[in-house]
Write a structure and sequence with these properties.
Number of strands: 19
Strand content: 25-35%
Number of helices: 10
Structural class: alpha+beta
Radius of gyration: 22 Å
Low-confidence stretches: none
Distance between the termini: 42 Å
Shape: elongated
Largest sheet: 8 strands, antiparallel
Mean pLDDT: 95
Length: 349
C-alpha cells in the first residue's frame, strides 16, 4: 500500500516489539523468539530468547497460569514472509518507534538505527511483564537515546524524532531538553495522522514555532503513524531532496543524510510539490507545483501571505530584523485539493 501511494523509502517499524522492519521478515517471528529485551535486574540485554521455551518452562508454572485460549495458541510458530513479492524500487530503512521509558511518556523514532526494544506482549496477556520483561524500552530516556544513536547504520545520517508532541503533552521546554541531548535528535512530528483521527491532536505547529523561536534547529516531520490497508487515505509523508546524480548503491545512505541535514520538506498527501525554495541575502523565493495559499512564518507569526504558485518576499531591513524574526519557514496550502506542505526553517542568525 505504501508503494502504491508513491512512497519508496520505507522507514517502517514493527510495533510490539519496536524493531526495524526488514524485507526478510516473517509473520509472527517475534512471537517465537527475539534477541533483545530489557529485563528486570539485568537491564538491556542482547541474547536469544525463545518465548515457547521460556513461557512453557515446567519449573515456573508460568504456562499453567495462562487462560486455556492462550495456551492453545502455543507453541508460537513463524509464518510466511511478510513481503512475499519483492518491491524492486523500495528502500528498506531501519527504524523503530520506541516508548515506555522509565522517566518519559514520549514516543521516539530512531530513523536509520538498528536498535530494537520491547516484546510482542503489548496487552500483557502472556504476562511477560510480570516475569521481568519490559513491554517497551524500559530504560531512562537518555540511555535509550544513546543506544538508538550508537546503533545508527551510518555515522553521517539518520537520527531520532520526537513523535506527536501535542498528543504526548510535551511543552516547548521539554522538547528543547530532548533536542539539546544530542544534535542527532533531529526534530518533531508537526503532523501525525493517527493522533488527529484519534483525539484531534495531530498538529504540533505551535510547539514547532515555539522551539524555532529559541534559535534551535528543529526539523518538522509529517507522518501517518500507523498506515494500514483499511486506511488507504492516510496523510503524512516527508519528501527527501536527493541529488539526481546519486547512484542506486549510494541512495540508502543519501536518504539518511537528507534526514540528518534537513534536506526534505513535509507534506500531507504529496500531490503539491515544492519546486524551489531559496533564501539568499534577505530575499526568499519559493515555487510550488499548483495554485496555493502561501504563508511566510517567523518568530513574530505570519509575516506574509499571498496566493499563486510563486512567492518572492524580502525580509524587512533594520538592525533588529534578524533578531526579531529569528527564522523563516514557508507553508503552502493547495487551493483545490487540500494538500499542505511545509519547508524546513531558515535560521537568520
Amino acid at each position: 500500500m505504501l508503494c502504491r501511494r508513491g512512497i519508496t523509502h520505507l522507514a517502517i517499524s514493527n510495533y510490539y516489539p519496536s524493531a526495524p522492519c526488514k524485507p526478510t521478515e516473517r509473520i509472527s517471528q517475534f512471537r517465537e523468539q527475539q534477541d533483545f529485551a530489557t529485563i528486570a535486574g539485568k537491564g538491556y540485554v542482547q541474547q536469544k530468547m525463545s518465548w515457547n521455551d521460556i513461557i512453557r518452562a515446567p519449573d515456573t508454572g508460568w504456562f499453567d497460569k495462562l487462560p486455556t485460549a492462550l495456551q492453545e495458541k502455543m507453541p508460537f510458530e513463524t509464518g510466511d514472509l511478510c513481503f512475499p513479492q519483492p518491491i524492486s524500487d523500495a528502500i528498506f530503512c531501519p527504524n523503530a518507534e520506541h516508548h515506555s521509558m522509565t522517566d518519559s511518556n514520549g514516543h521516539f523514532n530512531a530513523v536509520g538505527s538498528e536498535f530494537a526494544s520491547g516484546t510482542f506482549d503489548v496487552r500483557g496477556k502472556y504476562m511477560l511483564h510480570n516475569h521481568g520483561y519490559a513491554m517497551g524500552t524500559g530504560l531512562p530516556w537518555r540511555e535509550a537515546f544513546s543506544r538508538m544513536i550508537d546503533a545508527l547504520q551510518i555515522e553521517s545520517g539518520g537520527g531520532i524524532t520526537i513523535n506527536h508532541p501535542k498528543w504526548s503533552g510535551f511543552s516547548a521546554e521539554k522538547i528543547q531538553e530532548y533536542l539539546d541531548f544530542d544534535p542527532r535528535v533531529l526534530g518533531i512530528e508537526i503532523w501525525n495522522s493517527t493522533a488527529e483521527s484519534l483525539n484531534g491532536k495531530g498538529w504540533s505547529l505551535d510547539e514547532w514555532d515555539a522551539v524555532l523561536a529559541t534559535g534551535r534547529r528543529c526539523f518538522g516531520f509529517s507522518v501517518s503513524d500507523h498506515a494500514h490497508n483499511s486506511d488507504p487515505g492516510f496523510k503524512g509523508r516527508n519528501v527527501l531532496l536527493i541529488d539526481g546524480a546519486i547512484t542506486a548503491s549510494e541512495l540508502p545512505a543519501a536518504c539518511l543524510q537528507a534526514y540528518r541535514n534537513g534536506d526534505f520538506y513535509s507534506s500531507l498527501d504529496g500531490n503539491l510539490k515544492l519546486n524551489r525554495c531559496q533564501f539568499s541575502g534577505d530575499r526568499l523565493t519559493v515555487e510550488v507545483s499548483g495554485p496555493s495559499r502561501l504563508r511566510v512564518v517567523s518568530a513574530t507569526g505570519i509575516v506574509h501571505e499571498q496566493t499563486g504558485t510563486t512567492l518572492d518576499w524580502t525580509l524587512p531591513t533594520g538592525p533588529d530584523s534578524s533578531r526579531r524574526h529569528v527564522y523563516l519557514r514557508v507553508e503552502a496550502e493547495e487551493i483545490e485539493g487540500g494538500d499542505r506542505l511545509f519547508t524546513q526553517a531558515f535560521h537568520l542568525n
